[in-house]
Amino acid sequence: MSSDFESYEQDFAVLTAEITGRIGKVPKLVGDEKKQMVANVEKQLEEARELLEQMELEVREIPPQSRGMYSSRMRSYKQEMGKLEADFKRSRIAYSDEVRNELLGDDGNSSENQRAHLLDNTERLERSSRRLEAGYQIAVETEQIGQEMLENLSHDREKIQRARERV
């Protein structure tokens, strides 16, 4: 049974290496080549998922005393699969952004200008927020000083009243 698992492991390693290479190529391709590459990567990802399922079935058949080692390997393979899917998703997003830019006639320069403008606005908002926070802090301090002055005046009034009563 473990030989089947090791065979699946080798297949999975080869397949993930191919997928990684193809994911790296996706942003560099254009047009139909890119569409075809995306479709191929999707097929390979599905094959990798099926291999993982087969490996899980093999792990279930392994005796409990040696199952722990294989289970930890499975967790790492699943994490690797998750990373591959995330990388593919990012490459597809980049691909869809390029398609959108082609369709809309966006040259990419305006998006850089928009980004710079948004960053400037964000900085301006942060400066304003800091000024408001400083103003609030001053108001709180002023209120505390005023409260202390009122308490002092109240104490002085009581002293004056007691002195008047004595006289």
Automatic annotation (TrEMBL):
InterPro entries: SNARE (IPR010989), v-SNARE_N_sf (IPR038407), Vesicle_trsprt_v-SNARE_N (IPR007705)
Gene Ontology CC terms, in alphabetical order: cytosol; endoplasmic reticulum membrane; ER to Golgi transport vesicle membrane; Golgi membrane; late endosome membrane; SNARE complex
Membrane topology: Single-pass type IV membrane protein; Single-pass membrane protein
Coiled-coil segments: 31-61
Family: Belongs to the VTI1 family.
Assembly description: Interacts with distinct SNARE complexes that contain either STX5 or STX6. Interacts with NAPA and, to a lesser extent, with NAPG. Identified in a complex containing STX6, STX12, VAMP4 and VTI1A.
Protein name: Vesicle transport through interaction with t-SNAREs homolog 1A
Gene (name only): Vti1a
